[in-house]
Structure formats: C-alpha cells, structure tokens
C-alpha cells in the first residue's frame, strides 16, 4: 500500500498544473470520450438497456474529465473513484446530478464499495498505467512483476463485483504496436447517434458529419488517419511522447506500466475479452493553446529551470506526435489509446445477432403462413404434400420463436433484465 502511494504523491505535485491544462482546453480530449461513449451507447442499444439508470464506475476519475462527459451524454448513475484529493473535482458542484464521488485511501479499497454497487460498467481512462509499484532498490524504476500483479488484482476486483452482463473497459496507453498486434479484435459496439453531439463545441459541421458516418471503431480509425492526422495512430504517438520527451525532458517524468502482452495474456486466460487500438488526436483552437496544454499537463511547468524551451516542446510534439493544421487556425495533436473490454460471458456480444435472427425467422414464418393459407383457400393451388410441409415448418419456427416471445413479454411486463 505504502509503495503504490509514491504515484499518488507524484500526482499531488502535478495536480494543480494538470487541472490548469484541462480547464484551459476543456474539449481537447473530446475524441477519447467520443470513442468511449460511442461504445457505451452501442452496448446500451444492443442490449436494450436504460441509459439513465446504467450503473457506471469511473475508476481513478481525477478531475472528472470522463465523468463530466458521461453526464453530458445522458448517463445519470455515475460513481467516480479517486485516491488523490488534490486531483479530484469539486463534488459539491454535482449535488443531485447522478454523479457521486468517492475518496478512496488506496486502489484495493474499492472492493468495499463496488461490492454493493454491482456496476454494469467499470471504466478507467488514462489511469491504469499508473497502477505501479516502484523498485525497492531503485525507487525511480518500476517493478514490472509487482506492477503487473497489482493491475491483475484490480481487474479481478472489478470483475468479481461486476453485474453478470457487465463490462470492464480499460482505455489506456499501450506498449509498442508490434508486440500486441496479434491480440487486436473488432469492438462489437458502436453508436454515434448521441455521442456526435458532444463534438459540437470542438469540430465544425463537415468534420462532425464525416466522423458521425463511422460504422464502427475501426472505420473511425481509418477516417481519422485519412482526414485528420499527420501520422497514422499506428505509430503509437502516446507512448513515444512519454518515453522520448516527458521522461527525458521533465524532472517529474512519467514512469508507467502501459498495457502490454503479459497483462493481455492474463486477461485472455481468465475472462472474455475484446481489444483494439484507436486514434484520438487532441483538438486545440490554436497552437498557443496546444503549447500551454502540453506544458501544464505533462509537468514541464513544474520545473523552474526547464530542461527544454517551450518552442522546442512544440517542435518535438510535431516530430513525434504530429501537429496537423485544420480549418480556422485549429490544430490536432496526434494521440492514441487502446481499449480492452472484459466481460464474464460471450452472450452480451451475441444479442444483436440474435435479434436479427429472430426478425428473419419471424418474416420467414409469415411468408410460409401466407403460402399455406393461399394453398388452402385456392382450388387451383391446393397441394396436400406442400401444405403438410408448410405446417411442419411453421411449427418448427414457432418452436424457436415462442421462448423469445415469452422472454420479451416478461421483460416488458416485469421489467426484468
Ligand atoms: C492521468 S490521471 C487520469 C484521470 C482521469 N481518468 C482522466 O482521464 O482525466 C490518473 C489518475 O489516476 C490516479 N492514480 C494514480 N496512481 C494511482 C494509484 N496507485 N491508486 C489509485 N489511483 C491512482 C491519479 O490520482 C489520477 O487522478
């Protein structure tokens, strides 16, 4: 416990600057949350859930960046957990809003609270890589075995307290692409109907309509790569930024344990999983805003005598992440994350396919019944054998549809899950 808190101490030092960056450019990270909310909206739609009562835990919520956007997107049962008080948002501003903030002494303590919540969704945004244990001999170094162990423990806590049809979503930076490429799968949920409204403060109508057309997350990535970034997200700009710039050019650094093969292997052997990487460039009104955001968010501003000049930070940002000009002086800064989705069962992914199958069988049954009736009524078309076949086929299809119909009726009447 004591060892993990080194990281919290580091956040105490960074908090003021981190919050300043987010206040200065509150919509810069909009494409991160757009991705998460499009996936959640897809999950809600495919599983026919009620968005406003969906129980969501925002793990390591910091200043509440994701929490606040979840609220804007219409979610009203949000539980935000944070261990560093200096990082937390002011919960008094959210009285009666459907947002509840929990101050936790340390990460493993969450179980005492979430065991009563039984959340349908647990999300962690840009935080999991901070679950690290430092080396005893060399405190500046991360102990990879102990850090992996801590992350696995947190996953297990979340999974055993999750609703049976729930999801754990870890949205985070990841190790270099080649090492995890083989784990990439498609992400089954995607619905941009509501989430695209969140983009209105930041992007123009043409940009929004281009993004809104994305059919799934992978299609979204292609659109971003083609139209909105200097370098492909597959260059993994986020991890390179930390390793090549923040670690080397700030005194506070950014030691971390990003999503990697070992963690995905653990997840794969214990849970049902989906894994993807996605582009989420940060959006700024102009280059000046981008510069101030980077200087504050990544701790350059903490150093009295900076190792690197402000303009050099911008130069490196362009070389490593890519700064892309878009209309009206606005710029995009190349950023990317991974999304790991864990569930207890495969069934949540099959619901949409099942629904399509049911509709198809219903239409087929109607067609067979029409043929059957026409043959029975028409003297010319009457055919005893064919009528017998359509009778049997109708019974067979009814046999499939009846349990579906009963479950639909009981769900509607008794509001069962
Ligand atoms: C980069 S911030 C992200 C905050 C927020 N999710 C967001 O996207 O803006 C990481 C958060 O994780 C918390 N954190 C870091 N290490 C932690 C640990 N060992 N236990 C619990 N929380 C930790 C920090 O206090 C911080 O608020």
Number of domains: 2
- Strand order, largest beta sheet: 3-2-1-4-5-10-6
- Which strand-content bin applies to the residues? 5-15%
CATH topology of the largest domain: Rossmann fold
Q: Percent of residues in helical segments?
A: 40-55%
* Morphology call: elongated
Q: Mind telling me which CATH architecture of the largest domain this is?
A: 3-Layer(aba) Sandwich
Largest sheet: 7 strands, mixed
Could you name the CATH homologous superfamily of the largest domain?
Vaccinia Virus protein VP39
Amino- and carboxy-terminal Cα gap: 38 Å
Which value, in Å, is the CA radius of gyration?
A: 25 Å
User: Would you list the SSEs in sequence order as H and E?
Assistant: HHEHEEHEHEHHHHHEEHHEEEHH
Average pLDDT, to the nearest integer? 93
Number of strands: 10
Which small-molecule ligands are present, each listed once? S-adenosylmethionine
What does this molecule look like?
This protein has helices at 5-24, 30-46, 65-72, 110-117, 144-161, 177-180, 205-212, 217-227, 237-249, 261-270, 287-297, 310-320, 347-377, 384-414, and strands spanning 56-59, 78-82, 99-103, 121-125, 167-172, 272-279, 282-284, 323-325, 331-333, 336-343. The protein starts with a helix and ends with a helix. The protein is elongated and about 100 Å long. By secondary structure, the chain is an alpha/beta fold. The strands form 2 sheets. It has a 7-stranded mixed β-sheet, with helices on both faces. The chain has a 3-stranded antiparallel β-sheet with strand order 7-9-8. The protein contains 14 helices and 10 strands. The mean pLDDT is 93. It folds into 2 domains: 5-345, Vaccinia Virus protein VP39 (Rossmann fold, 3-Layer(aba) Sandwich), CATH 3.40.50; 350-414. The site of S-adenosylmethionine (SAM) has 21 residues, from helix 1 and helix 3.
């Amino acid at each position: 416990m004591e060892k993990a808190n080194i990281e919290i101490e580091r956040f105490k030092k960074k908090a003021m600057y981190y919050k300043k960056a987010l206040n200065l450019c509150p919509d810069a990270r909009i494409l991160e949350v757009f991705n998460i909310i499009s996936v959640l909206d897809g999950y809600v739609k495919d599983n026919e859930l009620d968005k406003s009562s969906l129980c969501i835990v925002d793990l390591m919520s910091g200043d509440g960046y994701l929490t606040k956007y979840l609220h804007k997107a219409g979610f009203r049962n949000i539980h935000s957990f944070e261990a560093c008080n200096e990082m937390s948002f002011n919960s008094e501003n959210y009285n009666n809003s459907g947002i509840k903030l929990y101050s936790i002494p340390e990460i493993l303590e969450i179980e005492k609270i979430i065991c009563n919540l039984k959340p349908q969704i647990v999300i962690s945004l840009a935080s999991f890589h901070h679950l690290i244990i430092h080396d005893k001999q060399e405190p500046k170094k991360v102990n990879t075995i102990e850090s992996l162990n801590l992350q696995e423990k947190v996953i297990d806590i979340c999974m055993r307290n999750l609703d049976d049809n729930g999801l754990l979503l870890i949205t985070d930076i990841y190790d270099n692409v080649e090492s995890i490429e083989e784990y990439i799968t498609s992400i089954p949920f995607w619905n941009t109907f509501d989430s695209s409204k969140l983009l209105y403060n930041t992007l123009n109508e043409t940009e929004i309509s281009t993004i809104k057309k994305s059919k799934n997350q992978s299609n979204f990535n292609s659109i971003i790569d083609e139209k909105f970034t200097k370098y492909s997200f597959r260059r993994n700009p986020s991890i390179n930024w930390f390793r090549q710039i923040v670690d080397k050019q700030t005194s506070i650094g950014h030691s971390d344990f990003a999503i990697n093969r070992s963690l995905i292997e653990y997840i794969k052997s214990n849970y049902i999983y989906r894994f993807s990487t996605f582009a989420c460039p940060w959006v700024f009104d102009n280059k000046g805003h981008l510069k101030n955001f980077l200087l504050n968010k990544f701790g350059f501003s903490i150093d009295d005598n900076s190792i690197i000049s402000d303009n050099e930070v911008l130069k490196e940002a362009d070389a490593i992440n890519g700064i892309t000009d878009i209309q009206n002086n606005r710029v995009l800064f190349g950023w990317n994350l991974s999304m790991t989705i864990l569930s207890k069962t495969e069934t949540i992914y099959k619901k949409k396919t099942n629904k399509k199958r049911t509709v198809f069988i219903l239409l087929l049954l109607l067609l067979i019944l029409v043929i059957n009736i026409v043959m029975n009524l028409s003297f010319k078309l009457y055919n005893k054998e064919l009528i017998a076949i359509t009778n049997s086929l109708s019974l067979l299809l009814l046999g499939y549809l009846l349990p579906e119909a009963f479950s639909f009726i009981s769900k509607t009447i008794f509001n069962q899950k």
